[in-house]
Amino acid sequence: MALHEDEIPVDESIIRSLLARERPEWADLPLKRAGAGTDNTMFRLGDDLLVRVPRNAHNAGMLRKEQTWLPRLAPLLPLTVPEPVHQGSPSDDFPLPWAIYRWIDGAEAAPDTVHDWAAFGRDLAGFVRTLHGLGTMGAVRAGDLAGYRGGLLRDAGHWVDRGFADCAGLVPGLDTLERMWRDALALPDPPGPHVLLHVDLKPTNLLARDGTLHAVIDFAGLAVGHPDAEHAPTWDLPAEAREAYRAALDIDDATWQRARAWAIIVGVSGIAYYRDTFPAFVAECHARLSNILDADSPHVP
């Protein structure tokens, strides 16, 4: 099902034609769908490769960004990240750039793939510490690197209010979530410098192997900006992982509240936008918001 009005449909026959045109040595390898996100559709190619195809022109730009940055970042990061092996060109068969990467063995972070959630949270914090410690590597917050999740909370207000309105009656505890968002708006702006951000460290982008965090994938949202929103997806994780992550990075209360606000508005906007088209993602957003409410509720022993 299409998720965006300007989405360009793609299927295995189109992927075969793209491969025959640009990488004929791979054109006859086994090909099967390997998942889909809000930005791209994926196909596993043979045993060792992954084809990523953008859903629309906006996401094609994000894919090109990965091709530029991943080779620079990979040697500097403590976990495995995707390795681009081919940058596909637009054609009559598919009018946008596309890409091929090395396949990374692993499974999405989940209760049956992670053995120790506290250790997982600390490992994720180590990855974030290293990434943010790179500064901006000469980049500035502009163009493809100006993702909204690296900006200030107040700059998101024009669409956040609409998201809350669209979620009326759909999200339990919505009034409490909106109060948290408003309270975070009243906090001082982040004091630190801009850094490089992954911005989407949710479980589907964190691959476990042998029970531990092995790889971080999907750098399409890579941005330069304030680090608050980087911490937001920890509300997709169990409390043990989230608490270990925060402790490992020694995140102060104001930063944590701003991060929680980012988690709220991304969850609310996701439900509002995808409620009729992407039920799995909407379920992720509901789970995130439930975790936020649970963490805010007093627990009586």
Find the CATH topology of the largest domain: Aminoglycoside 3'-phosphotransferase, Chain: A, domain 2
Task: Characterize the biggest β-sheet.
Answer: 5 strands, antiparallel
The 3D shape can be described as globular
Strand content: 5-15%
Specify the number of helices. 8
Question: What's the rounded overall pLDDT mean?
Answer: 93
Question: Number of folding domains?
Answer: 2
Question: Quick summary of this structure?
Answer:
The protein has two domains: 12-102, Phosphorylase Kinase, domain 1 (2-Layer Sandwich); 107-296, Alpha-Beta Complex (Aminoglycoside 3'-phosphotransferase, Chain: A, domain 2), CATH 3.90.1200.10. 39% of the residues lie in helices and 15% in strands. It has helices at 12-22, 57-73, 117-133, 157-166, 174-185, 239-249, 253-274, 279-296, and strands at 31-36, 40-45, 49-54, 84-88, 98-102, 107-108, 195-197, 206-209, 212-216, 223-225.
